[in-house]
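Checklist before submission:
- one chain only
- standard amino acids only
- sequence pasted in full

Submission:
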Amino acid sequence: MATMSDSYGTFSLLLGTIDRDPAVTLSTVPALPGDGLRLGADPGWHRHILAKVPDNFTIAPRRDASTELAEWTEPGTNQRFLDLICRDDALGQVFSALADSVIESIEASEEPPHEVLLHLLDQWRRLFRPAKPFSDKEMRSIFGRLWMLSLLAERNPLLALERWMGSRGEQHDFVSPRGQLQVQSIKRDGQDVTISSLSQLDSIAGVSLVLVRLHVELSPDGQNIGDMVTKLVGMGCPRATVVEAISAMGYLVGVDADESRFIVPTPPIAWHITDDFPGLRSSDVSEKRRAAITKLSYSLDLEKAPGRMSPKELNSFLDELVSQ
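Returned file contents:
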């Protein structure tokens, strides 16, 4: 069993095992009793920290120059693991120190291994990544999505996080088998929204797509991103998962400036997107021409747009979005 300061030696032994048997694609050993956390190595000399996740946990993959966060399913048992991979052998000692910290924190706190791993990974990333500026428009966009996430979290906090797919690069912000939701945050009350891609109004056959317009206004009496994270955690959303989802959008909680405070002074307005709803669709441009479009943005006036939903209809749709 790996204990404090032992991870480097454990990784060395695993790498030696891989060298002796090239047929092994990933060799792992338990790092703690109970098999909730493992250390591993693969033939590419990549070190792995693997944390068992529950069935309803959604993993948001990401990759940078030196590390990758992915999902690994154990052959034979089909048990899912959160897999943090070090792809730079020169960082072996640093990665081993991170593994030691994860092991020590789990032993001290008895929190689920995957939550500890995500939390510590976020702390290490914040330590080494300098703060970067965000415009009020960018902060408003993040805040609006968190505000909508809080509405869904009131109904089901875990499923609300699972449905938040926009942070993972999907074309719509919230996605479920029963519906999809796109959030547009604007700084003044009105009916204009900005559509930022050719596929933003594309819907899947048989699945409802709803566009929500949020009036998100700067106010010294409002809430910032950190306040929204605290609110979501209080509603039952795991902090590590919330912070990781926000970081996937490029914003690091606790590192990047968080001075902008916002309020949502008016109720959200929503439209059910149908074929006669205004705006562009991917199908409006041939595939050959569409492939050359790298960026597109246009304003859409929704004052006379069909499909406007009543507050009751929107609430029913949000219920469906996070239903089992």
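Reviewer check: The mean pLDDT is 88.
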